[in-house]
Write a structure and sequence with these properties.
Elements (H helix, E strand, L loop, with lengths): L4 E8 L7 H17 L4 E3 L20 H13 L7 H13 L2 E9 L8 E8 L5 E6 L21 E3 L4 E4 L8 H9 L4 E3 L7 H14 L2 E4 L3 E3 H7 L13 E10 L5 E7 L3 E8 H7 L22
Parallel strand pairs: 1-2, 2-3, 7-8, 8-9
Antiparallel strand pairs: 1-13, 3-4, 4-5, 6-7, 9-11, 10-11, 11-12
Helix pairs in contact: 1-3
Length: 305
Amino acid sequence: MKKGTFTVAAVQASPVFMDLDATIEKACNLIRRSAKKGADIVVFPEAFVPGYPDWIWQVPPGEIKLNQDLYAKLLEQSVTIGSIETDRLCEAAKQAGVYVVIGINEKNSQASSGSIYNSLLFIDPKGNIFGHHQKLVPTAPERTIWAYGNASTVKVYETDICKVGGLICWENYMPLVRYALYAEGIELYLAPTYDEGQTWNASMRHIAKEGRCFVSGCCMVLKKEEVLKKLPQLKPYYKSVGEFINKGNSVIADPNGEVIAGPLHAKEGILLSEVDLHILLGSKWNLDVAGHYARPDAFELTVKK
C-alpha cells in the first residue's frame, strides 16, 4: 500500500439469521478472508449481527403477541458492546490487521438492556473499538424495533489510512446529516444498508459526487428460507415473498460518482476496490460543498452534540 491508497472490502453476506454466536463466527471468518484478499478496511451490512428484523415489513403491528415474541428473540440475540461477542470481533480485526466496520443490533446496556439500537461499530487493526454510530431515525416500521440513536454518534474518525465515517440506510437521505460528515472532511463514506436496487445505487453515486468522497454501499443478501428456518411461525406472512427477500446489490463509488466495484447481485461475495485519495483531492477542484462551493454568509449548519 503506497501512501494515500488503500483497499476497501464491502462484504455482501447473509447472517446466520437470529443466531448471535454463529453470526459473530461467520463475521470473523469473513474478516480473515477479506484480509487475505488484500483489504485494509472491511465493511459489513446494516444490522448484520444477528440479522435485519425483516418481519417488521410483513407482520401487522396489531399482532401484539407475535411481535412481542419476535422482539424478545431479537433482544436475546442482540449485542452488548464490551461483551465476549465484540471482543471476538476485535480479536479477528487484530489478527487480520485490518479496520472493521460492522452493523449490529445493540442493546442499551447502559440503561435497561431492554431497548435496541441499529448501530455501527468501528474497530481498528489493534483490536480497539474506536467509533460507534447509532442510526438516528429508524424508518417506518423499524420504529417498532429500534430506538432513536444519539446524535453525538455522528462523527468522522481520523485513522492512519483516511478520514472515515458512516450513516445507516435511509439516514443517507437526511441532507443535513450528510453535510455534517462532509464538513468534517470525510474521505471514505460508509453506507451499510438493507435497501438495494437502482434507486439506492444512484443515491450512492450521487453522495460520492456530492461529497467528493469514496462511498461503500454495503447490503446483505437474505433468502426467505433462512428466515423461515429460524422463525417458522412467520410462514403465513411470507406467502407472497419470493426466494430472495434481499438481493444485496452492494456497490462502491468514487468521488466522481462512478461505480468502481459492483453491484453484486443475489449472491454472497466480497467487493474489493482500491481507494486513491489523490483522486479525491483532485475532485475538490471544481466541487467542494463544505468549502469553496459553500456560501456560509447565506447558510449555516449547527450541529448539537
